[in-house]
Each structure stands twice: as structure tokens, then as C-alpha cells.
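Changelog-linked ticket: flavin-adenine dinucleotide example.
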Amino acid sequence: MTKKNYDIIIIGTGAGGGTLAHALATTNKRILLVERGGFLPREKENWETKAVFLEGRYKTQEVWRDHNGKEIHPGTHYYVGGNTKVYGAALLRLREKDFEEVLHHGGTSPAWPLKYRDFQPYYMQAEKLYQVHGLRGVDPLEPPENEPFPYKAIRHEPRIQQLSDAMQKMGLHPFPLPLGLILNEEHKERSPCIRCDTCDGFPCLVNGKADAEIACIKPALSHPNVTLLTHSKALKLETDTTGKKITSLVVEKDGKTETYSADIYVVSCGAINSAALLLRSKNVQHPNGLANSSGLVGRNYMCHTNTAMVAFSKTLNLTKFQKTFAINDFYFGSPDWEYPLGHIQLLGNIKSDMLRAGAPFFVPNVALEVAARHAVGWWISSEDLPDPENRVTLDAEDNIILRYLPNNEQGHERLVKKLKNILNSLELTVSVVKRIPIEGVAHQVGTCRFGTDSKTSVLDLNCKAHEVDNLYVVDGSFFPSSGASNPGLTIAANALRVADVLKN
Ligand SMILES: Cc1cc2nc3c(=O)[nH]c(=O)nc-3n(C[C@H](O)[C@H](O)[C@H](O)COP(=O)(O)OP(=O)(O)OC[C@H]3O[C@@H](n4cnc5c(N)ncnc54)[C@H](O)[C@@H]3O)c2cc1C
């Protein structure tokens, strides 16, 4: 039964859907937000490493499979705010050259149909919305921008300042990591963010992280025209007999199905779930899945090649808020390698419970606690190339199958070695090097790429489906290539761009 008619239905409330909802809330249009998760509970476990990292308290329990039928327990989170509820809030723009064709050792990263200049004003808006702190002019690869960051860079604590200075002396260009935090260092009494040691990968107990719930959904809900349905999983989009118009959305709520309708439908479930929703919505007019006559829905899945590294030194590291600088010196190449290597950033604090997961059982907790106080963690991301065979499909029961075989790995391996050597020369010994496996879907993009040709793309330049007049996709699905920077800010900036299209 159709319950209610809206002007716009937005499915998913993460970086894409949440940002779009915020931008459209002031239009007076009747907007329905459909979110499969609830609000993430505020509880002391938010900041407990064991609960978050070892027990996966906030991760979905959903099980996917890889192309060999092996179970995948995806590192993804279904809440109001989506994956931004646990993100590290490192909000970087893609580099100007990321929008162009780039030759990699493993192949070619395709050009985007729009360029940096098309995204630039929306990057600025997104940085304001997500309260990004940073400093321009330090990263030599920084894309052009005349306006400063809305908030000044987050201060390094002494050990991190020491490392940044030492790297600078080596000729590198460590730059303050742009971070979306609701932090006021001058007036701590007014600052939600308290620069704690449980940020990257953790939910924020004090609402000090500018995630999509806090920065976008909460303010959007203060408008009476915006309605949020939680615990409501979108099952299927239905079309009219021409197949050109979506007529309704079928939702599962409390074990029952309900139907909602609107003039415009925006899918923003994250790149994997958005592809799955379109594939589940196949019908007579769209036998391969909704908007999928190109056969590209679900294909070209990318998630970066990522490695987490932990290095130890004799020097005590008492830093509370650690993730404050990054290095892009090898993003597009190095003196000994003409191809791109990637991006390096600090990780959040390394806790003894994190080390426990990789340590032999006989190592006592106290030893791990001592080790953690001498550790510095790093995150290394390199570009993976779009491969049509890396893709999301469904099994006979409509469950997700994710096929992903890494590619273009040489640059990444070189970057890992380079960082190890740099750290060694600073008297830090790298003891943990963990390549992120298929479960690590945090940087998922690419499954409904945008473009001008309906044969080679799913979405047009406005992120509207080529084949359906009232269907848009505004999460990470639209990326034609992944770059090597965290995707969150680009997803938010693109949602603001699409918001302008919808407003007009
Ligand atoms: C641990 C972690 C750390 C990260 N750190 C960073 C970082 O520092 N910087 C950065 O840029 N990025 C980071 N990311 C990635 C970033 O969070 C994502 O790029 C971003 O959230 C993606 O936005 P999205 O809108 O595509 O999807 P999401 O934010 O995942 O939002 C999708 C939403 O859709 C909902 N949904 C899914 N399926 C359905 C359905 N069928 N019906 C209804 N609702 C549905 C989900 O519950 C979710 O709310 C991190 C991610 C993780 C997991």
C-alpha cells in the first residue's frame, strides 16, 4: 500500500545522502530520508577499543560472499550518518591531476568527465559544512584554492611535531591533515571535540566529530518538511510500464513491507549497497537491473590498496590526538619510480588491545601497554584501477557477492618500503604491516560511474541515471577512478553539486 507521497526520497544518510538532505532541507520540498540503521547509541563502549576493534560492536552482522563463495564480514556500518559515524574525518580534496587520465604501472586511471574546477566551489562548501581544519600552501600537490580552510589546522602534539620536523629536514613536505572536527582550541570550555585518543575508527561519544549525522542530518531534521525513517531498509525501486520513471520504493520496516512514492528518488546507500539495490530492482523493462542496460551497475568497484603500519621507537609517544599530518611527496611518483605511489597519513592512536589482535597469546598485556606507548601508526593508500571484473553481484537470494582482486600493486609496495626506510632513519622500527583485506570496504567507490555516454556509464554528469528520468545516485558510486585520497570530502562535494542541479 502506498503510504505517502513526497517530493524527494533519499535512501541512505551517509556522506552522500546526508549532505544532500542538508542542502535540500531549506527548499521546503517534502523530503523523506530512508535509512536502514538507527541512531548510533551513545554509550561508554563508543570509546572502548575491545568493543569497537576486537568485537566489532558497531559493524553490520550482515554476511556477504566473495566470488569463490567465501564469507566476507564487511567493515561497514549501518547508522544514521552511515560510515562517517566511525570515520577518521580526514577530509581531503582529490588532486587536480586525479581528474585527468594518469598512467600507472598497472594501467591507466581514466579521466573524469568533469574536472577539478567543476568541483572546486563544492569542495569549499563541503569543507565549511564539515568544519574542516587545515592549512593551505604546505602540501605541494594541493589543488588550487584562494580561500583558506574554514578552520585553522589542528595543532600537532610534541612527539608528532618532532616527527613532522624530522621529515621536513629530510626534504619531505608533511602537511597538516585536513580534519572535520567540531573543535575550538582557544575556548576549550565550548569545544565538543576534546582531542581524545579514540577518534579514527571509533564513534564519537561527545559528538565532536563532524560526521554526516551531526553536521547534516540533525540540522536538516529541524526543518518540518524533512522526515526520517530509521530501521527501514530499501528493498526495491519500482517503475512504470515505460521503465523511464520510478513510481515507488518498497521498504522493509519491522519485518513488514511498506511503499513510499515521490517525484524524485535519490539512492545513496554506499557504492556496494546502491549497486545491490539497483540490481535487486530488476523488472521487465530493466531485466539486468534498474538503469543497467550498459551492464555497468556494480562493476568497476574500487576501494584503494590500503596498508596499516605500526612503528615503534625508544621515544615515548604520549600523544592523545595523533592523526594530524600526511605526506603526498610520492602521490604521483618519486625520483626512482615514474608512476604514482600514493598517500601516507598518520593513523589514530595505537592501543594495546589493537596490538593484542596480532600478538602471540603468551605476550602479557602489560608488555603490550608499554609497546603501545612507544608506537606510531600509519595509513598508506594507493590508487586501485577500475576493473569491470571487480564487481558487486547478487546470489539467488539477492545477497551481496563482492569480487575484488587487487591491481596496480607495485606502486603501493614501493610506498610501503619507502615509508619503512624513512621511519628507520628516524629510529622507528616497523613491526606491523597489515594489508587491508576484502572486508575493508571503507573506501568503496565506482559501481555506478558517471559519464556522457550511456553505453560506458550508468549516470549522466548530473548523477541522474541515463535511462531513468527521476533516479539519482549521490554516494561514492559515481567515481570513474579512485585517486589515492580518502573519498569522503569528494562524495560530500558531489552531493552539494547534485543538490544545485535538483534545486534548479
Ligand atoms: C573506519 C572508517 C574510517 C574512515 N575514515 C575516513 C576518513 O578519514 N576520511 C574519509 O574521507 N573517508 C573515510 N572513510 C570512508 C567514508 O566514511 C565513506 O567514504 C563515506 O561515508 C561514504 O559515503 P556514502 O554516502 O557513499 O556511504 P555511507 O556513508 O556508507 O552511507 C550509506 C548509508 O546508506 C544506508 N543504507 C545502505 N543500504 C541501505 C538500504 N538498502 N536501505 C536504506 N539505507 C541503506 C547505510 O546504513 C548508510 O547510512 C572511513 C570509513 C570507515 C569505515
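Closing comment: Example verified and attached. The chain has one domain: 2-503. The CA atoms of residues 402 and 490 lie 23 Å apart.
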